[in-house]
Design brief:
2 copies of one chain form a homodimer.
Chain A lengths: L5 E5 L3 H12 L3 E6 L16 E3 L1 H8 L4 H5 L3 E3 L1 E7 L2 E6 L7 E4 L1 H15 L2 E4 L3 E4 L6 E4 L6 E4 L3 E4 L6 H6 L6 E6 L2 E8 L13 E6 L4 E6 L5 E8 L12 H11 L10 H7 L6 E6 L2 E2 L3 E3 L5 E2 L7 H19 L3 H31 L5 H16 L7 H6 L5 H19 L4 H4 L3 H12 L1
Parallel strand pairs in A: 1-2, 1-12, 2-8, 5-15, 12-20
Antiparallel strand pairs in A: 3-7, 4-7, 5-6, 9-10, 10-11, 13-18, 14-17, 15-16, 16-17, 18-21, 19-20
Helix pairs in contact in A: 1-4, 1-8, 2-8, 8-9, 9-12, 12-14
Protein name (chains A, B): Kynurenine 3-monooxygenase
Keywords (chains A, B): FAD, Flavoprotein, Monooxygenase, NADP, Oxidoreductase, Pyridine nucleotide biosynthesis
EC number (chains A, B): 1.14.13.9
Chain lengths: ~450, ~450
């Protein structure tokens, strides 16, 4: 057991609340601060890509007995449904039989997590703005405005779970030797909506992640519990086929009729939603170190914000907690070494999922419609079925295993090199499932 | 001519003062703000690697008639003097006959630049701390402390020339789509001193940049006007042979006796200076965009802070001004497009000199003592002398030309590939200046 500490968690998002539950279960006093009102008391709308929960996230929930409650509000998603043209849909299963990811509403999930944390004995302080943290004492400063009066609250340890624009990290960033980068994609996103049928059923297959891949832009749809789908349009901010280029109702309607003709029947409020909903930005944020002695630590998006194309933002944040829990088990009260080991073991994996997520935009928006890529996936699946012990596809390593992300990335790169060799073989389109191909892969795997 | 504007320049360093002179010459009202006291009224000591001024910097000074005054306080440096062992010194000339760089004291130069700017009609506001800038109006906010009372001053345009930890950039950083990175090297530095002889002469050759390359650490010395040398010890912060490993007087004296035995006679105050002077950090900072409409622009270290190993920090900052001047000539009063073209044309070159500077630590600390590298340099020089129109060495492109840094880097990489091929030739050590080698290079250049 650890000696009980008084711990502040800044941020009542998904990672902050789950972290609070873990800390509370270890006997600590846990106070969670958030600058926003209690999410259970407000209407949540708008900004937020639907969440995808996969094995890493499920494990973190299961270890504190919360997986069933959370999965109860999720919709299993077993495949990609690729809308290549009008009425042409290709299906790509994510894993083997029964392997699924879960579509979740961020708002619903967050409400549930706050409930569960309160039930576990965590105290919440909403509409309390944390502006500063003293890195040597973990004391936080709270006030109405950045330049107004502040009061202080003393803690033994403060966690920054306050997201990509973390105020706690902002303070750490002023130290020497603090590495930091924020890089915006030129791709933005906007939410649209596919409402439920009159009888409450879904207009599209609810167990698919729907993609309309169109090169440098794409539309995506994920099912909600109420029969609706949240759609997300990913597109460059400027240039050809960009948010900037869609200024009028006519331009918008033409654009959708040209590129997404099969959505006309299912997105009735296109024009209203498009011009009402904000265009949001996508950023990759990296930093190091994540901790300061035994006093302050960052977790989740606050230390590794990633783009959403692998669906791993929450999963990576929840896995931070799994790793932290292992460290608490291992180091007990030696918090300085505990946090040091946490950041060092976790950082390469955070960098790896950032890279994988960045690359996946290309895969989703272009490659899913590319014959060569589809052939590659087909060969991989065929070989993997024959030799499951020799070939686990990258997506499965990332999504259906707990292998460290950095290892998954390295093996995935090696597999891709092998497949590039295989795709160069003569008549590969016809002979893709021949013994020759099988032997070639076996030989390359040994090299 | 441009219509006169009221312009604020934040930062009275080298780039801020030279920029102010350029703006003043164009008829603008120019106010320079600095949080520090007037550098002409204080003793400057300690932190600051000696400056190196080369052709890009000289050009920016010459274009406003200031080159002779500045070169008058500089010492020409024509070569590297590589101290490989006791009394063993290899010399590497930087360029062709007469091509030199200049060693300058940052403090002396900065005082002179402020004098020159005042003479040109620039107004200075020292000990005025700028905390904020309104990006849409260029209005700056000034006050005693970050959280104290602020007063505002209105301008038409505000330049941030406030260095690597720029407050103006800090404000821009809060926008969406602002890319930013700061990356610290694990190499730190500390200043030491070689005093003048009793008669005021230099203890070492004053026209050399002295290097004691020792793998992952090195000592460097640059001459000052008063007969002394400023020495800089570059070394990892921690690990073997690090600042952290030198905690006691005995450890320090042993370390210098082992690695720099020939410095004992010339650095009398080693122990006192080492423990008195701070260990400083080295950071590479990149960002984009550099400007906000026609209201706010960054320049110099504020938008591209680099490590000092190519001696180009000030030169790159001064070249920013040369480019800005070309844009003022070209665009006149169209400041929005003027600043847009400035940032777009300058950014790739800022990235290139950052990369070159980062790489040069390896060259200075290890490669200058490496037989293969010395052979490469010898072949390059020999070929370049024979075919000056076909081969300008990278160092000369960067230091003795005004070719954009990005082009110099790209050509340098190509040249290095060629030389790696050449070094693989049979008996290259004996035949380095043979016709065969000459033909090989000529052939590779055509490829």
């Amino acid at each position: 057991m650890q000696n009980p500490k008084k711990i502040a968690v800044v941020g009542s998002g998904l990672v902050g609340t789950l972290l609070a539950i873990y800390l509370k279960k270890r006997g600590h006093t846990v106070h969670v601060y958030d600058r926003s009102p209690d999410i259970r008391k407000i209407n949540f709308t708008g900004r937020s890509i639907n969440l995808v929960l996969s094995d890493r996230g499920v494990k973190a929930l299961r270890d504190v007995g919360l997986d069933e409650e959370v999965l109860g509000i999720g919709i299993p998603v077993e495949k990609r449904a690729i809308h290549t043209g009008v009425d042409t849909v290709n299906e790509q299963f994510y894993g083997k039989d029964g392997e699924v990811i879960y579509s979740l509403s961020r708002g619903l999930l967050n409400r549930k997590m706050v409930d569960l944390a309160e039930k576990a004995g965590v105290e919440f302080f909403f509409e309390e703005k944390v502006w500063d943290v003293d890195l040597t004492t973990a004391t936080i400063s709270i006030g109405e405005s950045e330049r107004g009066e502040w009061k202080t609250r003393d803690y033994d340890l403060t966690f920054g779970a306050d997201g990509a624009f973390s105020r706690i990290r902002h303070k750490m960033q002023r130290q020497s030797m603090f590495n930091y980068s924020q890089e915006f994609l030129n791709i933005g996103y906007k939410e649209l909506n596919i409402p439920a049928n009159a009888d409450g059923t879904h207009k599209l297959d609810k167990n698919s992640l729907h993609i309309w891949p169109r090169g440098n832009f794409m539309l995506m749809a994920l099912a909600n519990l109420d029969g609706s789908f949240t759609c997300t349009l990913f597109m460059p901010h400027d240039g050809e086929n960009s948010f900037e280029s869609l200024k009028t109702k006519e331009q918008l309607v033409d654009f959708f009729a040209n590129h997404f003709p099969d959505t006309e029947a299912v997105i009735p409020n296109l024009v209203e939603d498009f011009f009402k909903n904000p265009t949001s930005y996508l950023v990759t944020m990296k930093c190091f170190p994540w901790t300061f002695s035994d006093k302050v630590a960052l977790i989740g998006d606050a230390c590794h914000a990633i783009v959403p194309f692998y669906g791993h933002g929450m999963n990576a944040g929840f896995e931070d907690i799994t790793v932290l829990e292992q460290m608490m088990e291992q180091y007990g009260d030696d918090w300085a070494n505990l946090l040091n080991d946490y950041e060092n073991s976790r950082k390469p994996n955070a960098d790896a999922i950032a890279e994988l997520s960045y690359r996946n935009f290309l895969e989703m928006s272009s490659k899913t419609a590319d014959a060569n890529f589809l052939l590659q996936k087909k060969i991989e699946k065929w070989f993997s079925d024959k030799h499951p012990e020799l070939w686990v596809p990258l997506y499965s390593r990332v999504t259906f295993s707990h292998q460290p992300y950095a290892e998954a990335l390295a093996i995935g790169d090696r597999q891709n090199e092998i497949m590039q060799e295989v795709l160069k073989m003569e008549n590969i389109v016809e002979n893709w499932n021949s013994e020759k191909v099988e032997n070639k892969i076996l030989e390359l795997l040994k090299a």
